[in-house]
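Bit of a strange request maybe. I'm writing a small parser for structure token strings and I need a real example to test against, not something I typed by hand. Could someone generate the tokens for this chain?
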Amino acid sequence: MNYALIFKGHEFEYEIQAVVKIFIPRVRFQLCRDTEIPEAENQILTEYDKNKNLMHVDILLHDKKYTVSAPACAEKSGQEFQLCQMLYTGLQKLTGYQPPWGMLTGIRPVRKVLDLIGQGMTPDQACTELKQKYLISDKKLKLACDTALIQKEILPHSLKEIGLYISVPFCPTRCSYCSFVSHSIESAGNLIPEYVQKLCEEIKILGKLIEQYHLSVQSVYIGGGTPTAVSAGQLRQIMQAVQNYIDLSHAQEYTVEAGRADTITEEKLLVIKEMKADRISVNPQTLQDNVLKEIGRCHTARQAVEAFLLARKLGFDNINMDLIAGLPSDTFAGFSDTLEKVLSLSPDSITVHTLTLKRAGKLYHDEQYQNTEISEIEKMAEYSAEVLPKAGYRPYYLYRQKNTLGNLENVGYAKSGKENIYNILIMDDRQTILGAGCAASSKIITPDQNLTRVMNYKFPYEYIHRFEELMTKKQQIAQELEKLT
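Reply from user aminoacidic:
Good idea to test on real output. This should exercise your parser:
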């Protein structure tokens, strides 16, 4: 079945496509502009007739039709929203689907709540405003508002306070859903020693910039990939570089994403502890063995539990566990069983992601997975939002991604005092983050709230072989950091 999107007289293509994908996900549309005539059984036309000052939407979807026209609003800034709203109403009527986040397509719902509160609204007023404008459900509004109120107490900080991200882009195997720049040990293991060496050199260079511009490191996050996929000696080498070159005297948290149970050993955990990291993640994603096998994990649910218990035994008192709602072959019964088992371990925080199908992941191209039952995944997300607060976990950060099943969200829940500052600030784009390693991004926030991104090379071999070129990018970072003085 073919689908076509037709744009006439406007340049609102990005937002129009975002609204359409709420109702018709994982479909590749033929994009047509102005006079192009598509050959497709399903057609969605959006038009702004400037001569008549009319907005027009015409939908033919699975032999159902919807047409509406309306005078364009006077303000140019509101015309895009008006056309999207007309399109949303038509698609909602034709499909019968009421999206939980309404027509909100942005990735930061919490930011909208915080902005309105910052303008002087009460939380209730902010929620009323957002519900009227975006048609968001009461449950999602409560989730966003609860998260915003927790973040409100954490967000204020000096522009001189920064985060440091260090990328270790290797994993034992690549999970079927993964879209990150991560490489299996089998395919890229020979690159690790030189990669680690270059990474330590970059950490040293960042340390000099931090010192030169009198910055204060608030949080450190070593992520990936799976940082513990490298050997204990290589992990020590990376963390020793952090200790040698980065002033951690003001750091409020230091996270190592230990991640997969098949990489976690007592020796590596002892390295992490010795090097003063105080927060780790043990990420099973699920505790259903059949689902672990389906997604390409080489460990069992029991191994994940044992890895967590080992970390507790060694004295780690701030452990996060990641879960994913909507994994292939998982069911609501399986997800709820996983959540109950995780709660019995009493981790300090639990992050519940909704599966996102991105083109870089193998699962995106799996035709058997294209017709996933969205209502089952919505039940998983709603169940976690209901059960976790009752168990003493508060939502402290929330974000959404393109191509997330059911247009749902990812939420970090934590016990009081165990919220991860780095996760909040990286999503909020209000703090400078310096990144080391391949695919790492440095984001510099200036006093006028302008954001500049400087990207490292994406792949390990490129990072290694173009390292000297990469260092010229540090000059751009230095120029932006100069604005903070």
